[in-house]
Amino acid sequence: MFLIAGVQPKTRRVDESPQRCPSCGLAQAYATRVDHYLSLFFIPLVRVKKGTPFLFCDRCGRPVDDVRPPAREVPPSGAETVCVACNKAFDSSYSYCPHCGQRA
């Protein structure tokens, strides 16, 4: 007889109310935590360690704490406009931001 057991992480959403993500600007960041469970034959049985909550953006796919300021891109023509939604530079001849679709 053999036994397959171990501790595996399981991501759980703590709060279902979305918050604004500082990286993408959309309200798709949720309070999430990673709990560790003792599993037997890959079936989680008992929670061994309760994780600390953090914000995780569904659109960006990364924790909100890991947000770095967006890099500024230089448009080819030299005349630039900075988008108010995503903070990226684009050519001022555009009516909409080519990165996020916000009206200029």
TrEMBL record:
It comes from the Bacteria. Residues 20-101 form the Zinc-ribbon domain. Pfam families: Zn_ribbon_15. InterPro entries: Double_zinc_ribbon, Zinc_ribbon_15. This is Zinc-ribbon 15 domain-containing protein. The lineage of its organism: Bacteria, Pseudomonadati, Thermodesulfobacteriota, Desulfobacteria, Desulfobacterales.
